[in-house]
Every structure is written in C-alpha cells, then in structure tokens.
Amino acid sequence: MTASPKRTALYDVHASLVARFTDFGGWDMPLKYTSELDEHRAVREKVGVFDLSHMGEVRVTGPQAAEFLDHALISKLSAVKVGKAKYSMICQEDGGIIDDLITYRLADEEFLVVPNAGNVPAVAEALQQRAEAFDVTVANESEQTSMVAVQGPLAVAVMREIVDNVVEAPEASGAGSTVAEAIEGLNYYAAFRGVTAGQPALIARTGYTGEDGFEIIVHNDGAADVWAAALATARSHEGLPCGLASRDTLRLEAGMPLYGNELSRELTPVDAGLGILAATKSKPEFVGREAILAAKEQGTQQVLIGLSGQGRRAARSGYPVHLSGGEQIGSVTSGALSPTLGHPVAMAYVSKGAVETGATVEVDIRGKRQPFTVVELPFYSREK
C-alpha cells in the first residue's frame, strides 16, 4: 500500500478555492484553480500566487557550515555572501544528481538549503551523513515551513503592499531601508528577513517561471495570513492563484530543468549541460568531484536541445526524436503547447553532434512523426 499524499498548511484554503489537486512529490498540491491557460497568462502579463510549501527547507548552522557545504554540494558555497543565494546540486560519488537546489546564506554560520519536494528525504539524509566530520547542525525544517511565491511583472507592486517591515535589509539597499527600497533593491538570487502580512519571513527574489518574482518562506502558522494577503493584493492587480500545471509550462518556456525529467541520478551535471556549477577548479574536494571532473574531461555523449513545433500536437516526455526520415537520436524530456508562443515546444536529450540549431527533426507522437525545429534555449525570455 502507498502512503496518502501529504497536505500543506494551505490545503484547506486551496480546497475552498475549488482547486483541482494532484499528487506531486508525495504532496497533494493544487494543479489548477480554473484554467491553466489563464493562470499561465496571469504570470506572464500580470501576477500569480503559488503555494510551494511542498519544497524542502534544511537549515545548516555552525562554525564549519560553509566548509561543510563546500564538501556536500558541487558549488563553492563559502564564496556566497550573506544575503545571497546560489543554485547548485548535490551529487553522488559517481556524479549522479541527487537533486538541484537553492542555498541561501543567512549569516556567516547559517545557510538554508531548499531541495525539491520529492527529494527532501534523500537530500536531508545525504546532508546528515556528510556532516559527521564537521562542526555543524543539520536540521530538516520542511514539515514546519511553508513557501508562497509571487511571480510576474507586477510582483514588485504586490510585495510592496504586503511586506510590513524590513528586519535585515538587503545589501543593495543598506541599513534603515524602507520596504519599497528593500523590495526594489533586492537583487536576483538574494534574500532578506522581514515581516510579511504580520508574519516573520525570509523574502527572496527567486523563482521558477522565467518572470520577476519573490518567494516568501514562513512558518506554517503564518502561511494562511501570507497567502491571503498575497492573493488579495494580486487580485487587485488582476492576478490569480496559480497551480502546478501553469508552473510547469512557465518553467518549460524559460528552459528551466525539472528533476525527474532533465535531471536524475543517472545523469551528471556535465551530462545535463550544467557542469559549470561544479567548482572543480576552485575546490580540491567535494562529493562527486572526481567523477564530475572525469566527465568534464571526457565530454558527454548527449546534449539537451530545444524543439519548436507547428500545429497543436505537443511532444511529451519519453517521445522518440528522429533525424528527418531517419534513425532515433534521442528522447523528449519535457514538452507542452506553449501558451505564450502559441505552438508546441519541448526539450530533449539527443546524441551529441547529431543535429545543429535550425535543423528539422521528427518526434514520434503516438505513432505519427511530426516535424520540429531545433532551437536555442530558452524559448522565452522576459524583457528586463
């Protein structure tokens, strides 16, 4: 028997909004509230509010916190300044990707690691095991913590209204910053402590949609207040609550990888085209270094490409990719009909050197080959 999906602190709120739920990463999460197309467009054109409380939060503290994370993760976390964040990965000894994650440096000896929902147990366990030789404390706070995301061109306007106070101002704004200065001065992949809708929170300028946006990390007890304030303010700006369906098409348009699709334990960061994340030159030691270094030296036999189609038939994960009129050269990892562009887009791993940008390939969609053009990623980039 399989265990029932977990529920976030906001489950009842979503149920009252008549959300359609889906099991994602072991959590019962809103797939959509009304129309995934409307929710997608709200984020691209106005603003959307997401419950991301299924994501994990693992706090690492202690005199050797930075040194420990340099060992446990593939990037050099000790080089990250307080108030900043870094996208990285945690890998096996053989270089296989356990998860991709974001790590915030909250103080000299305090970091917050945010893994993906389904990988939280594996990441927490790996960090605990790797911490044995270091003077650090690893605390998995995922069950007690919620995350609300505000994403879209009007995200700044929403945040200016719902953030009450700045506890620790971002470096770009300086001490004594007003809320407006702190929000507007916050750089991408940076965070500050503040009060949102009356609740102590970590406010980060990060996201997974390809738009400007913020993620608010708050204790479960304050999640409903933060969600209510964010949604009410977003609605006043013609925004919507958004589910995982729109989040997936948004991240696909932005060319962002999804664990389980573009990333897995069978792939190294080099295989995924993200070898640059591994600090093999600046760090003499970290878990998986030798395997990743070897992968960098040998090169990969596959590359991740973008595919742009015509018509309305989307290429889905697992669909074979063929040379035009010829042999199979790879498989689709993610695909959908792009709401923004109006035609199908997909990402696929194919044999290195098999095709170049601009070439035409064929995707086998339920027994019928459909033409797709190889394009550069991402499919969509917002105007800065």
TrEMBL record:
<dbReference type="InterPro" id="IPR027266">
    <property type="entry name" value="TrmE/GcvT-like"/>
</dbReference>
<feature type="binding site">
    <location>
        <position position="215"/>
    </location>
    <ligand>
        <name>substrate</name>
    </ligand>
</feature>
<keyword id="KW-0808">Transferase</keyword>
<dbReference type="InterPro" id="IPR028896">
    <property type="entry name" value="GcvT/YgfZ/DmdA"/>
</dbReference>
<comment type="similarity">
    <text>Belongs to the GcvT family.</text>
</comment>
<feature type="domain" description="Aminomethyltransferase C-terminal">
    <location>
        <begin position="304"/>
        <end position="380"/>
    </location>
</feature>
<keyword id="KW-0032">Aminotransferase</keyword>
<dbReference type="InterPro" id="IPR013977">
    <property type="entry name" value="GcvT_C"/>
</dbReference>
<dbReference type="InterPro" id="IPR029043">
    <property type="entry name" value="GcvT/YgfZ_C"/>
</dbReference>
<comment type="function">
    <text>The glycine cleavage system catalyzes the degradation of glycine.</text>
</comment>
<dbReference type="InterPro" id="IPR006222">
    <property type="entry name" value="GCVT_N"/>
</dbReference>
<protein>
    <recommendedName>
        <fullName>Aminomethyltransferase</fullName>
        <ecNumber>2.1.2.10</ecNumber>
    </recommendedName>
</protein>
<dbReference type="GO" id="GO:0008168">
    <property type="term" value="F:methyltransferase activity"/>
</dbReference>
<comment type="subunit">
    <text>The glycine cleavage system is composed of four proteins: P, T, L and H.</text>
</comment>
<keyword id="KW-0489">Methyltransferase</keyword>
<dbReference type="InterPro" id="IPR006223">
    <property type="entry name" value="GcvT"/>
</dbReference>
<dbReference type="GO" id="GO:0004047">
    <property type="term" value="F:aminomethyltransferase activity"/>
</dbReference>
<dbReference type="GO" id="GO:0032259">
    <property type="term" value="P:methylation"/>
</dbReference>
<dbReference type="GO" id="GO:0005960">
    <property type="term" value="C:glycine cleavage complex"/>
</dbReference>
<feature type="domain" description="GCVT N-terminal">
    <location>
        <begin position="10"/>
        <end position="280"/>
    </location>
</feature>
<dbReference type="InterPro" id="IPR022903">
    <property type="entry name" value="GcvT_bac"/>
</dbReference>
<dbReference type="Pfam" id="PF08669">
    <property type="entry name" value="GCV_T_C"/>
</dbReference>
<dbReference type="GO" id="GO:0008483">
    <property type="term" value="F:transaminase activity"/>
</dbReference>
<dbReference type="GO" id="GO:0005829">
    <property type="term" value="C:cytosol"/>
</dbReference>
<dbReference type="Pfam" id="PF01571">
    <property type="entry name" value="GCV_T"/>
</dbReference>
<dbReference type="GO" id="GO:0019464">
    <property type="term" value="P:glycine decarboxylation via glycine cleavage system"/>
</dbReference>
